Amino acid sequence: MAKPDKEIVQSSKGPIEVRSYVTPEYIDSCELDEGIGVFPQYRSLLTSKKSLRSLAAEKKNNLCLCVDEGNHIVGYCVRRKPPSDERWAEMDPPLLFEVLGENARGWRSHGLMKPMLRLICNEPENEDRILYIVGYTWTWDMEETHKTLQEYRDTIIHLLTPYGFRQYPTNEPNVSLRAENLFMARLGENIERPVKRNFTNLLFGIRED
């Protein structure tokens, strides 16, 4: 596991510690903010300390957390291996890593996602990786943000573009379900042309013999 990195971010609610490569033991010492979980019209991407702990325990992942002075986890961002049942796990060689994250209700619009993305996406090792994000409209908290689907989509694009992500077309069935769904990726500078070709083929479900 890489060496953890951390910084202090000054938010309107007070100082927030942003820490990467957190361990399961560190998560045990924290509490999950009540703004992360299951709500009547919205379900967080990750809903429990157990799910965060599982991500932290996987050595190839990088889990980054935002923690307030009360030791509450108010935001998270992770670079993880693709889920085994998804198309992106079929990449050969296996250089793809998914990036996903969110802030707790009541902690959005406080500038917390940018420092987490910075710690996740600016690792030198990412020049040998392909990072990707999948934005599904059914995982977006429209009730709390009061944004339209297009506004929410534009927010994600605005956040990720400075880190080298760009939009890619794909016929992956879940992404294709809605026009507002989104697939973005960042190809590291060291990714060779044959690997780029494999990635482009995978976007459209083409498997080379």
Q: Which features would summarize this protein structure in a list?
A:
globular, 7 helices, nine-stranded mixed beta sheet, single chain, 209 residues
Q: Could you give a quick summary of the protein structure above?
A:
With 209 residues, the chain is an alpha+beta fold.
What does this structure look like?
There is one protein chain. The protein is an alpha+beta fold. The chain has one domain (6-203): Aminopeptidase. 26% of the residues lie in helices and 26% in strands. It is built from seven helices and eleven strands. It has helices at 24-28, 49-57, 113-121, 142-145, 149-160, 173-176, 193-203; strands at residues 6-11, 14-19, 31-32, 38-39, 42-43, 62-67, 72-80, 96-103, 130-135, 166-167, 182-187. The strands form two sheets. Strands 1, 2, 3, 6, 7, 8, 9, 10 and 11 form a nine-stranded mixed sheet that branches. The protein has a two-stranded antiparallel ribbon with strand order 4-5. A hairpin with a 4-residue loop joins β6 (62-67) and β7 (72-80). The longest helix is centred in the C-terminal third of the chain and has 12 residues, at 149-160. The radius of gyration is 17 Å and the shape is globular. The mean pLDDT is 94. This is N-acetyltransferase domain-containing protein. It comes from Dethiosulfatarculus sandiegensis.
